[in-house]
C-alpha cells in the first residue's frame, strides 16, 4: 500500500526565480531558501549551473551553495550538461537534476539535441556521477504534451524513463512543462509508469496554466505517486516553452495533501510566511489559489 | 461503463446572483440566462421562490420564468418549502429544487427545522409533485462538512439520500456547500453513493473556496458521476454558511471535462462570452481560474 508520507521539492528558488522578470541577488535568493527551510520543506531546488549570460537570474549558484547552512533540507541544482555537472561537483551540490524532453522538437529547440542525444549525454553524466558517488536525478520534460508536437506517446516516456533508470538516475521527475495535462492523462501515464518502475523513484512536476494543477496532483496520488515538485507562491514557468506559465503553488499542494490526511512535514503558517517572502521579493508571485482562505484558516 | 456525456447545470443565475452584493433587474438576469443558453448549457437554475424581503436578488422569479423563451435548456428554480413549490407550480417551472442539509445544526440555522423535519416537509412536496406530475430534485447540502458541526458522517448522507429517492425526488445533488471537501473524501462519499443508488440520479455541487473545485470534480468523475452544478464566472457562495464563497466556475469545469474527452455539448467560445456578461453585470465575478488561458486557446 502506498505511503501516507508525501515529499515536496520546492523549485521556486530555481524554476520560479528563473522565470520572472526581476533578477534577485544572492542574499535575496538565500532569504527565500531559508524561509522554505524554516517551514520544513524537505527538498529545495537552489539554483542552476547554467550560463549567467543566458540566465542571469541563476548567476552565482556556486556561491549561493557556499552560503547555505548545513540544514535539514536536501538541496539540489539543475545542470544542463557535463560542464554544469562538473561545476556542481566543485560546489559540493548533493543532488543535481538533468532535463531530457520527451519531445524531440522541444529538446532540439531547448538544447539543440534530439531526445536520444540528450539521453546519451545524460548517460555520460550518470556514469561520472557513479564514480563520484553523486546523486543525479532526471526530469522527463514535456511528458504529456509539447507546444510543437502536441500529445506525446506514453511509450516514448516509458522508453526514456527506462534508459535513465538503467543509466543510474536516482530519481525520475515526470514534468508537465507547459501545463497541458489533464487528470485523466496524468492517472493513465503515472499508472503506466508505476506498473513498470518502482514508484519510490518517481515524482511529478505540474504547472497550473489551465488551473488543473491540484486535480493533476490528486490524479498522481491516486496512481501511487508520493513525491511532487511545487513552487512557493506559484512562481515559475518555462522561458523556452511558449504558453508555459506558473508552477503549481506549494501552498495549494501542501494544503490539499494535508487536508487529505497526508503528512508533508511542512508547517503551513511558516509556509505562508515563505510565500510572503516570495511575493515581496519578486512582486509577481501570486501566492497560489487558496491563499486568502489559508490565511484565515491556518493563522488563527 | 460510465458515459462519455456530462451534463452541466449552471447555477449562476440563482446561487451565483443570490450571493453577490449587486441586485440585478429581471432584464439583466434574463440576459445572463440567454447567454448561457446560447452557449449550449443544458440546464440552468433560473431563480428561487423565496421571500423577496429576505433575498431581494431573487425577487420576481415568477415574472422571469414568464420571460424565458421556449429554448433548449432545462430551467429550474429553488424552493425552500411547500409555499415556494406552489408558487413554482403556478409559474409552470419544469424542475424545482429542495434543499436539505445533512447537518442538523446547519438545517436549523438555515430554515429552523431539523434535518429529519426537513425531509418530512420534502416528502409532502414530493407527494404533491407526484400528483401534479412535476419534477422535484433535492440538494443534500453540507454533505461533507458543516461550519458548525465539522465533518458529516457518510451514513447520514446515505440515509437522507435514500429517504428522498424513496419519496420520489427526480435527482439528488450532493453539495459541498462550504467548499470544505477534499478529493479523497469526494471519491469516497460519491463511490459509496454510486454503489447504493443509480448514478444517473446523482449530481455534485462544488465550491472552489480552497481551490479544490476541479480536483473534486475529477474525483467525482472517477466515482462515476456524470452531472455537475457549476456557476458561470465562479459567481456564488452561501450567505447563510460562514466561510462559503465561490462556486466552482463553469468555464473551468467545462474546459477540464472537454480536455479529458467528455462531451458537455457546450460551445466554449460562447461560454466565455456568457462569462463576460456575468462579469459585466455583477462587477464581482472572477471568470474562473483558467480564463486568461482559455481566451488565448479557444478564441483563436
The amount of helix of chain A comes to: 40-55%
Can you tell me the CATH superfamily of chain A? Aldolase class I
Count of discrete structural domains of chain A? 1
The computed structural class of chain A is alpha/beta
What is the H-and-E element order of chain A? EHHEHEHEHHEEEHEHEHEHHH
Would you report the number of β strands of chain A?
Answer: 10
Largest sheet of chain A: 8 strands, parallel, barrel
Averaging pLDDT over every residue of chain A, what do you get? 94
At CATH level 3, the topology of chain A is TIM Barrel
Can you tell me the CATH class of chain A?
Alpha Beta
**Order of strands across the widest beta sheet of chain A?**
1-2-3-4-5-8-9-10
Oligomeric category: homodimer
Contiguous low-pLDDT stretches of chain A (5 residues minimum) are none
Q: How big a fraction of the residues of chain A is strand?
A: 15-25%
> What's the CATH architecture name of chain A?
Alpha-Beta Barrel
Q: Using only CA atoms, what is the Rg of chain A?
A: 18 Å
Number of helices of chain A: 12
Distance between the termini of chain A: 35 Å
Largest interface: A-B, 27 and 27 residues
Shape of chain A: globular
Report on this structure.
2 copies of one chain form a homodimer. Chain A is an alpha/beta fold. Chain A has a single domain, classed as TIM Barrel, CATH 3.20.20.70. Chain A contains 12 helices and 10 strands. In chain A, the strands form 2 sheets. The first copy, chain A, has an 8-stranded parallel beta barrel, surrounded by 8 helices. A two-stranded antiparallel ribbon of chain A has the order 6-7. In chain A, helix 9 crosses helix 10. The longest helix of chain A is centred in the middle third of the chain and has 17 residues, at 115-131. Chain A starts with 6 loop residues before the first strand and ends with a helix. Chains A and B meet through helix 8, helix 9, helix 10 and helix 12 of A and helix 8, helix 9, helix 10 and helix 12 of B.
Amino acid at each position: 500500500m502506498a505511503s501516507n508520507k508525501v515529499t515536496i521539492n520546492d523549485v521556486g528558488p530555481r524554476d520560479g526565480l528563473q522565470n520572472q522578470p526581476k533578477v534577485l541577488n544572492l542574499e535575496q535568493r538565500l532569504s527565500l531558501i531559508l524561509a522554505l527551510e524554516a517551514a520544513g520543506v524537505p527538498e529545495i531546488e537552489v539554483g542552476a549551473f547554467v550560463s549567467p549570460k543566458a540566465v542571469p537570474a541563476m548567476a552565482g549558484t556556486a556561491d549561493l551553495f557556499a552560503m547555505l547552512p548545513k540544514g535539514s533540507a536536501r538541496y539540489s541544482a539543475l545542470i544542463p550538461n557535463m560542464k554544469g555537472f562538473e561545476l556542481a561537483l566543485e560546489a559540493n551540490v548533493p543532488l543535481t537534476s538533468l532535463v531530457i524532453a520527451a519531445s524531440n522538437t522541444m529538446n532540439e529547440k531547448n538544447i539543440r539535441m534530439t531526445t536520444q542525444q540528450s539521453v546519451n549525454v545524460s548517460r555520460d553524466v550518470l556514469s561520472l556521477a557513479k564514480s563520484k558517488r553523486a546523486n543525479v536525478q532526471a526530469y522527463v520534460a514535456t511528458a504529456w504534451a509539447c507546444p510543437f508536437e502536441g500529445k506525446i506517446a506514453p511509450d516514448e516516456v516509458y522508453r526514456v524513463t527506462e534508459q535513465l533508470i538503467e543509466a543510474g538516475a536516482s530519481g525520475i521527475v515526470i514534468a508537465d512543462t507547459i501545463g497541458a495535462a489533464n487528470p485523466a492523462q496524468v492517472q493513465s501515464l503515472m499508472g503506466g509508469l508505476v506498473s513498470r518502475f518502482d514508484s519510490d523513484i518517481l515524482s511529478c512536476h505540474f504547472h497550473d496554466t489551465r488551473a488543473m494543477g491540484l486535480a493533476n496532483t490528486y490524479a498522481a496520488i491516486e496512481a501511487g505517486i508520493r513525491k511532487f515538485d511545487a513552487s512557493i507562491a506559484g512562481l515559475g514557468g518555462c522561458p523556452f516553452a511558449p504558453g508555459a506559465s506558473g508552477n503549481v503553488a506549494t501552498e495549494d499542494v501542501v494544503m490539499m495533501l494535508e487536508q487529505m490526511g497526508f503528512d508533508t512535514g511542512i508547517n503551513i503558517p511558516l509556509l505562508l510566511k515563505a510565500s510572503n517572502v516570495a511575493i515581496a521579493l519578486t512582486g509577481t508571485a501570486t501566492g497560489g489559489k487558496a491563499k486568502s482562505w489559508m490565511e484565515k484558516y491556518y493563522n488563527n
